[in-house]
Design goal:
With 406 residues, this protein is an alpha+beta fold. It contains 15 helices and nine strands.
């Protein structure tokens, strides 16, 4: 039976080594994005073989989702769930090595431990698969790599279970050992799974002093009323958002505010800030060609500005090529009607957009999006730091405006 025990250990070891690599890549990608800069993301079934710099891919969707980290309100950026997978697979790597090297001498309890505990990573993977299927509607290749690793570990547990059954039927004797499976084994697995997260959390610096160090708006109101009021269901804290309808980071930020249940509790004033030199004289080239067209469309929403903005976000992948090659205005008119096109061509709309840009210039706004300014004491509007509009959002809101959290 030692061959089957060795096979069980080898399957568990192989799955665990793959799992450690995939979990380490996932953790590395997550921590790299804490600075809110755009980084490549590992997104391949072959560990480390491909890193993608695309603005949108399934691995980035998973990374920026609410399900990629825990305790985001307590720790800046949260604790990546991949750390739990990393510790769990390290445990099975050790157990697999032991069973491969000591297959004949291994006590029955250690084989039972693999047979039972091998269900744990599989169960976790099934839960995360369900989240990907029902919530994210996409599948990250690195995540699938972890699912496959979990399946290999489970295959090892099945082989171990069958080997125990054969030994029992054949009447072979093997030392039981003294380790209680459901006590010592579960405790050991739990400690191994939690240890990387505990080390990570204990090494995080105190971010509280940095939350209010990113400046304020010198001019809090626009004298021509050119800014856009975005309706929300239960506004509790005033904010001014500088956004570009064709900015992928703005889309992600907007989606994050919605998914975290924050947006509906904000009193939102939108300052359109298209990064397109067609209308934005602060740029010498277009970062997002066509953004001026969509900014005018939002201004022409006439009570439906939020719907127009969210339509632009939802359809960015289709609209960006039209912004570069032509036909974007026709697409807007097809969606919202001829009156929208007439309004977009109106000189008053161009003037209003220019007044919004002048408001940004008067406040010396950095030429980047998105930006959030939140009301503090009196009329003061303090900038929420760029890093705190990304993976650190929930922690920042918990410190600056806890009333907007669910």
């Amino acid at each position: 039976m030692s061959k089957e025990i060795r096979l069980a250990g080898a399957l568990a070891l192989g799955g665990a080594v793959l799992g450690v690599v995939f979990a380490a890549l996932s953790t590395s990608d997550y921590t790299a994005h804490l600075d809110r800069q755009m980084h490549v993301v590992h997104c391949s079934f072959i560990p480390g073989a491909e890193a993608s710099g695309d603005e949108a891919n399934p691995c980035k969707t998973a990374l920026f989702s609410p399900y990629s980290a825990l305790f985001r309100q307590s720790f800046w950026g949260g604790i990546p769930i991949s750390l739990g997978a990393l510790g769990c697979f390290c445990f099975f790597a050790g157990l697999g090595i032991y069973l491969v090297l000591a297959s004949e001498r291994a006590p029955r309890r250690s084989i039972e431990l693999l047979a039972i505990a091998g269900l744990v990573p599989l169960a976790a993977s099934i839960v995360m698969f369900g989240i990907s299927l029902t919530q994210l509607h996409t599948f990250c290749k690195v995540c699938i790599g972890i699912y496959f690793s979990s399946a290999l570990v489970f295959a090892g547990s099945v082989v171990a279970f069958r080997a125990l059954g054969k030994e029992k039927r054949s009447g072979a004797t093997r030392p039981k050992g003294t380790m209680p499976v459901l006590a010592g084994g579960v405790v050991a697995l739990g400690v191994a799974s939690l240890l990387p997260a505990v080390v990570y959390a204990s090494s995080l610096p105190d971010y509280k002093p940095y939350l209010t160090k990113c400046g304020t708006l010198a001019q809090t109101t626009e004298p021509h009323n050119s800014l856009v009021k975005i309706p929300t269901t239960s506004p509790k804290r005033q904010v001014v958002l500088f956004e570009d309808p064709l900015c992928p980071t703005c889309r992600e930020f907007h989606g994050r505010l919605l998914s975290e249940g924050i947006f509906e509790k904000l009193d939102v004033t939108l300052a359109l800030f298209p990064l397109d030199n067609e209308c934005n004289w602060m740029l010498d080239r277009a970062v997002h060609p066509g953004a001026c067209v969509l900014a005018k469309a939002v201004l022409c929403g006439k009570g439906k500005e939020r719907a127009v903005l969210e339509w632009a976000y939802d359809n960015q992948e289709d609209l960006r090529p039209l912004g570069k090659n032509g036909g974007l205005k026709d697409r807007v008119v097809k969606q919202f009607g001829a009156d929208m096109g007439t309004c977009m061509d109106d000189k008053a709309t161009s003037i209003r957009l220019n007044q919004t840009l002048q408001f940004a210039a008067s406040n010396h706004i950095p030429v980047s999006t998105p930006q959030m300014y939140m009301k503090e004491s009196g009329d003061k509007l303090a900038r929420v730091c760029d890093e705190d509009t990304d993976l650190g959002l929930k922690y920042a809101m918990g410190q600056l405006a806890p009333e907007v959290l669910p």
